[in-house]
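A quick aside before the break. I want you to see a complete sequence-to-structure record at least once, exactly as it would be stored in a machine-readable document. Don't worry about memorizing anything.
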Amino acid sequence: MKSKKKVSFSSQRVGIFVDVQNLYHSAKNIYKGRVNYSELMNTLVGDRQLIRAMAYVVKSDAKLEIKSGEESFFDALENAGMELRSKDLQVYPDVHKKADWDVGMAVDAIRMASFLGVGILVTGDGDFVPLVDYLKWGQGKLVEVAAFRQSSSTKLVEAADHFINIEEIPRGILRSRK
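That is the input. The structure line, written in tokens, reads:
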């Protein structure tokens, strides 16, 4: 797959939309580590103008002692420069759980498109291909996707104007110590 050249100008107005669940699980399961969100943000923005960075998170239904760890994780996201959009984990009577921000993330990206030049989707989820197509062809925006190549939809990578492989960001992944 041929890599597309990144088009970047300091006058570009950037919006970032982070699928935290997608990144969290990819980093944990593939690398036994976690994402360094500060490095990620610095790399994605570069010398461009950040207008807004949104992180989509799900609050767990876990016990209080785990929630304090969850809160410090949420604080780290905010300290990296992201606004949190959160919702509670949905638990159904059959004990099945659902935690999904796809529609909310897409709606926010569409709402903000009019005042952005570049939309950066931080996810490997192929469900976002129609959003990429709409932002590019319906709104005339540049769309970048940042994710772990190993867990990214090939169709999403191909649809984007530029793909940023988080695995290649220096200090992008913080490895767990054993």
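Two observations worth writing down. Residues 13-56+100-175 form a domain with the Rossmann fold fold (CATH 3.40.50.1010). The beta strands are 13-19, 33-35, 49-59, 83-88, 90-91, 97-98, 118-122, 142-147, 162-165, 173-175. We'll return to this after the break.
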